[in-house]
Structures are given as C-alpha cells and as structure tokens.
Amino acid sequence: MLVINPDNRFSVEESLNHPYVKVWFRDEEVNAPQSENRYNEEIDCADRSLSEWKGMNEHEFPRMSVISE
Question: Which domain of life is it from (predicted)?
Fold first, then answer.
C-alpha cells in the first residue's frame, strides 16, 4: 500500500477492500456526512509564542469530541 510512485499506489477502494484494512472497515465511518468543522489556516499561520500556542491548546482540546470508541 505504501508506494513512492503514485501510479502504483492502491486506490481508496482497493485499500478499503485489502484484508489488512478490511478488519477495521466501518461503513458508517467511510460514508459519514461531511463534518461542519473546517480547517482554518489563519490559526496555524499566526505568529505566536509557545505559551500562546499552549493556551490555545488548553482552550481547544475540551471542545474536541470523540468520534467513536
């Protein structure tokens, strides 16, 4: 599956049907509705000090929810 040449790589369909991956395949995860959360590039590109980044993490982590257990 992990091949440098992109022309020789597995497709998503092939990967999902591979015996190694198929064990963990869950249709409700693969075909889940698209998340409303979007990547905000401004957050990562901002010039912040280490303490500011740590403070942001403390603020953001409690908002994250577990998708599945």
Answer: Eukaryota
Closest by alpha carbon to 69, among 14, 42, 29? 29
- pLDDT for residue 19: 92
- Distance from C-alpha of 47 to C-alpha of 42, rounded to nearest angstrom: 10
**pTM for this predicted structure:** 0.42
Give the Cα separation of 21 and 11 in Å (integer).
13
Amino acid found at 5:
N
Rg (CA), the chain: 18
The single-letter DSSP state of residue 8 is G
Q: Nearest 5°: CA angle at 68, between 64 and 69?
A: 110
Q: What number of H helices and E strands is found in the chain? A: 5, 0
